Amino acid sequence: MSPIYIGPRKLAVGVTALIPAAGSGSRMGAATPKQFLPLAGVPVLVHTLRIFAQEPRIDDIILATSPEQMDFTWDLVRAHGITKVTRIVAGGAERQSSVAAALAACTARPRIMVVHDAARPLLHPDGLAEMLDRAATVPAQIMAVPVKDTIKIVRDGMVADTPAREALWAAQTPQVFHVNLLDAAYAAAAAEEFTGTDCASLVERLGVPVAVFMGSPENLKLTTPEDFAVAEAMLAHRAGGLNALGAET
Question: Mean pLDDT, to the nearest integer, of 96-124?
Fold first, then answer.
């Protein structure tokens, strides 16, 4: 039987951020994993960590990276002064195993867990802050955006169905949970040998409602070289030097 989660009505906030950063980034076509590639002269992972390091309610950050990159990651964290990183653990081949390893390493058991992709370095701090505001009373929430394109379900190279676009949202991170809920969700998934594509999919299997917080198209996940070009333009735009298309302002 799956563990049953019965959450409190309200929690005081104590927050740990879990950052899975063990991916190989094979779709980038680069020898270096994408989270370590430079973006506007700074490694992608550092951009991401700075967002969480600068949020005062984040108590600490746990990273999960590949075993062979652990020493390098510690050096990177120290070189950029990210003092909120307290632990770096060996991640697995799948995102789920990396989050599980980071979750197991969090011995202090904070009340709130924030899980965020290392390759989403453009999260706006205001979005993170608003999700933390809601976290005291909302046990499970994800950032997501409505899809813009018509989605087709395809089988054997043929369209099998066209679901209503109004009901379709693209999940992003952060995903924010009360820690006892996330513990229960990962324990159930391990017991049943279930692998999901994100933390929320594990929580959903417990029958717990997952709230949706409106995200932003700017919170893109860097996957291809083209994504890096878009991200560079967005960072320049935020800095005020260029507009989103790269023209001088």
Answer: 93
